[in-house]
Amino acid sequence: MIGWLRGRLAAKAPPALVVEVNGVGYECEAPMSTFYTLPETGSEITLRTHLVVREDAHLLYAFGSEDERRLFRSLLKVSGVGPRIALGILSGISVEGFVLCIEAGDTDALVRVPGVGRKTAERLIVEMRDRVKELTGAPALVPTAEGRAATAQAEAYGALVALGYRPVEIAKLLKSVADDGASTEELIRRALKAAAL
Q: Using N-to-C axis directions, what is the helix angle for 66-76 and 83-92, rounded to 10°?
């Protein structure tokens, strides 16, 4: 199992990225919440990873925080949820937002995440109810300010998806607005203003 990668960010094009470690390029897929925290190409980075082994491929998934990886691994244990849906959930809602949805039994909020239908949302609430305690009880390995910025970006992304914007458009909009520690609401306002131009 590959637990993490530390190296140079060689390429990034959502959802794929390449990390060069000692001359070897590791191709990974990552949720949008991780992409929002990535530095410029060529920078040194450390990402937590999860390896999925299938008959036809070995797929490496990368995460900017331990909380994201922990949620990803928990989601894979839910029947009917594979890596694609798990990545979509992490791209459309923050870890904290997901925990709140599960605790509140909010299927409507989960259905707004791309790739999650009503049946999947209901299954997530039933099967994740006990597991979210593990997610919230474990210590985070990400600096607080960095974690807050990633959360605001992820929540803004989810809100823009709910408003009907396509993921590619959203990524461009959020990248175009200054990310100076702004709140979720401020990021949404800036993105909508940029979309109107």
A: 140
Domain hosting residue 87, numbered range:
66-137
Is 132 in the same domain as 148?
A: no
The CATH number that applies at residue 14 is 2.40.50.140
pTM: 0.68
Last residue of a domain, one of 63, 87, 105: 63
Q: State pLDDT tens for residues 50-63.
A: 999 888 989 999 99
Residues 130 and 190 in one domain: no
pLDDT in tens, 4-46: 999 999 999 888 999 999 999 999 999 988 988 899 999 999 9
